[in-house]
């Protein structure tokens, strides 16, 4: 990947369990494709969604061979909670030092409170980057006040 060492990317659908799911593939805004059903998306974004069946895996399996993960970046359109549920061994084993993920309660839906619980249990600090690169800390329990954070940075002291 661009001649960068120590970086891996995976083209997989992450979920809380292995199996198959229907992926809503967006015609216009491919980056909005999601495993989650999002009522009103097509109208709000003037986009069409076609569903395809995809295999899903869990982070515990996909990253099982990794000794440690300095940074795990996810932007998976509301499936972050499902992906973290499939990472219980990695999280309990403290293999993920930093998680960067989108915080979007509208996309997370009912999983927003479950996501906060997972973050509280597994990370010491959360915040978001300012333009100068500094991280502005926020309390995990304050996340419901934020309607959107594009790169929520979650770290833990090992």
Q: How does this structure look, described?
A:
This protein has 158 residues and is α/β, with parallel strands linked by helices. It has one domain (13-155). 23% of the residues lie in helices and 31% in strands. It is built from six helices and eight strands. It has helices at residues 41-45, 59-62, 80-85, 88-92, 105-108, 111-122; strands at 13-14, 19-26, 49-57, 69-74, 96-103, 125-129, 135-138, 149-155. It is globular.
Descriptive key words:
5-stranded mixed β-sheet, alpha/beta
Brief summary of the model shown:
It contains 6 helices and 8 strands; from the N terminus they run ββαβαβααβααβββ.
Q: How many domains make up the 3D coordinates?
A: 1
Overall number of strands: 8
Mean of residue pLDDT? 89
Query: Which series of helices and strands comes N to C?
Result: EEHEHEHHEHHEEE
Question: What is the approximate shape?
Answer: globular
Oligomer classification: single chain
Question: Which sheet architecture does the biggest sheet show?
Answer: 5 strands, mixed
Distance between the termini: 28 Å
């Amino acid at each position: 990947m661009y001649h960068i060492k120590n970086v891996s990317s995976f083209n997989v659908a992450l979920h809380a369990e292995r199996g198959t799911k229907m992926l809503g593939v967006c015609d216009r805004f491919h980056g909005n494709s999601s495993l989650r059903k999002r009522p009103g998306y097509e109208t709000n974004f003037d986009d069409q969604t076609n569903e395809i069946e995809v295999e899903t895996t869990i982070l515990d399996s996909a990253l099982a061979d990794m000794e440690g993960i300095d940074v795990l970046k996810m932007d998976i359109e509301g499936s972050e909670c499902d992906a973290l549920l499939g990472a219980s061994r990695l999280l309990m084993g403290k293999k993920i030092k930093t998680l960067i993920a989108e915080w979007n309660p509208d996309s997370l839906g009912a999983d927003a409170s479950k996501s906060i619980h997972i973050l509280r249990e597994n990370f010491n600090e959360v915040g978001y980057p300012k333009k100068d690169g500094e991280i502005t800390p926020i309390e995990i329990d304050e996340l419901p006040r934020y309607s959107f954070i594009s790169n929520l940075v979650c770290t833990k002291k090992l």
